[in-house]
Each structure stands twice: as C-alpha cells, then as structure tokens.
Design a protein that fits this description.
Blueprint: E1 4-11, E2 14-23, H1 28-40, E3 45-56, H2 58-73, E4 77-81, H3 85-93, E5 101-103, H4 106-116
Parallel strand pairs: 2-3, 3-4, 4-5
Antiparallel strand pairs: 1-2
Helix pairs in contact: 1-2
C-alpha cells in the first residue's frame, strides 16, 4: 500500500493542504477528516496542493464533491493547484475544471482568492 499523507499549513491567511502519495478508497477518509475539520472551524478559503500527489482514484474525487458545497455555503472555495498530468486527467475526465478553479501553482490560487475578496 502506498503512503498517503496530508500536511496543513497557512499561506497568506489561506488554509493549504499538501497531499502526498496516493489518494484512493483507503486514504480518502484522511482527506475527508482534514476538510471537515477546516469547515467546522469556519476555515473556508482552502487551497489543495497536489504537487506531491502521484495518483488519485474516484474515491478521492468524491471527497472534493462531497465538501465543495459546504465550503461554498460558508462563503469560501476550494482551489486546486500543482497537479501532474495523470492526476489532472482524472479530474478533467469527470468535468472538474468547470466546477473548480484549477491552477498551475499555488501563487495563482492565492491571487484568485485575493481578487475575489476585494
């Protein structure tokens, strides 16, 4: 089994989740817990950095689907950044780019959040 881990940090006042390894049915609950905790604490400007994520399964995508409405209902959003081609293709296949802001890098996501709050 591949390792999966999440680091949480704060950049420019935004919550950033760094994902590592493989996000699949076995590890999706960790992402779920991390998002739930942010939402429960009313932290709604979330950037998920995929730089170190090698693989995502549909279970991982399901977590994003499950929580995006909750985050948006408290006035925030989830921005996705730094996907490798393999990971991006999975998102693309399921139409995610029309539902989520997906950026090449984290700075672009921060910039977008800053512009939205003006």
């Amino acid at each position: 089994m591949k390792n999966f881990k999440i680091d949480h940090r704060i950049t420019n006042g935004f919550e950033v989740l760094d994902l590592y390894g493989e996000l699949d049915a076995h590890t999706a609950s960790q992402l779920e817990d991390a998002l739930k905790e942010l939402i429960n604490n009313k932290k709604s400007t979330i950037i998920v950095n995929f730089r170190e994520l090698d693989y995502i399964a549909s279970a991982g995508l399901g977590v994003f689907m499950a929580y995006i409405e909750d985050v948006r209902s408290i006035g925030g959003d989830i921005k996705l950044t730094n996907m490798n081609d393999k990971v991006y293709n999975v998102f693309d296949l399921l139409g995610f780019p029309t539902l989520y802001d997906i950026f090449r890098d984290e700075e672009e996501a921060v910039e977008k959040f800053l512009n939205e709050t003006k």
